């Protein structure tokens, strides 16, 4: 059977042999009782890396985000976020369905919300209005093509939050991709936020799980909500061991994914009938437009499939590629050759 080059997402990564051995050797206990040694080790390791008081191992990024919103907010509160935030578009309206929370979307630039626009959207105290409680940011920003929000920009939003008494949550599903692109430390990137969710099962290559970070009191309350939502896990050390391995071994290699994405973007831009959706590629995500008079995005992806390449259309004339540890430079070179044939 042919090996597929899978550019659909960095969620498709497979555990390496070394990660599988770490899983096999994992010490386990009952995490609801907080006596799983591998889970405890993962949470302590990660909290120390980001400079936060505590961390909570959760099943997914979506679960981590909804736990943060439920913990920070009361029913009827309003949350400010960029208009194309993942938390709004792709998390099944959990903030509204489960939390009774109202999103207030603000148009951003490359995923970044201008602090002045945040100020304009903070509700005055008025009996007719919901209470503005929380700002949500996303870094890297999926729908902005993996765009990275810089440290200065983050700090500018932190200043607004402090001025108005608001909390900030970071959807940092690709937190370490942002850190790699900025060349900063995890603590520097994490500092402005009251809570952060990072995903272990994207670029870091673990099979399952995310982490939620915050103060000890915040995590204590989030743990209660995790149990309410069915996220209390038992011998979860089996999957936590993969997360430990990922944090200890798979962060430095993310720069390879970024280099491969930049290579793909440069080559795609040179092909007639293809136009990049964004001016630059900050991390491991590339969006591009296909000349639909030649071929639709769906047919383009179907033709890739016939050539052992997997990709997803992102609209009638738009395609997304994502690089990850399962995609080599040679894979990218092969994909470009196939795409040139398709477009010619």
Topology:
Layout lengths: L4 E2 L10 H8 L12 H14 L3 E5 L2 H12 L5 E5 L3 H4 L4 H4 L4 E5 L8 H7 L10 E7 L12 H14 L2 E6 L2 H8 L3 H5 L4 E5 L10 E5 L1 H13 L8 H13 L4 H16 L4 E3 L8 E6 L6 H10 L2 E2 L1 E2 L4 E5 L6 H15 L1
Parallel strand pairs: 1-11, 3-4, 3-5, 5-6, 6-7
Antiparallel strand pairs: 2-8, 7-8, 9-10, 10-13, 12-13
Can you describe what's shown?
The structure is a single chain. The protein is α/β, with parallel strands linked by helices and 344 residues long. The protein folds into 2 domains: 17-249, Aspartate Aminotransferase, domain 2, CATH 3.40.640; 253-343, Aspartate Aminotransferase, domain 1, CATH 3.90.1150.10. The protein has 14 helices and 13 strands. It has helices at residues 17-24, 37-50, 61-72, 86-89, 94-97, 115-121, 151-164, 175-182, 186-190, 216-228, 237-249, 254-269, 297-306, 329-343, and strands at 5-6, 54-58, 78-82, 102-106, 132-138, 167-172, 195-199, 210-214, 274-276, 285-290, 309-310, 312-313, 318-322. The strands form 3 sheets. It has a 7-stranded mixed sheet with strand order 2-8-7-6-5-3-4, sandwiched between helices. Helix 1 packs across helix 11 (237-249), helix 2 packs parallel to helix 11 and helix 12 runs parallel beside helix 14. The longest helix has 16 residues, at 254-269. It is globular. The relative contact order is 0.17. The model has no long low-confidence stretch (mean pLDDT 97).
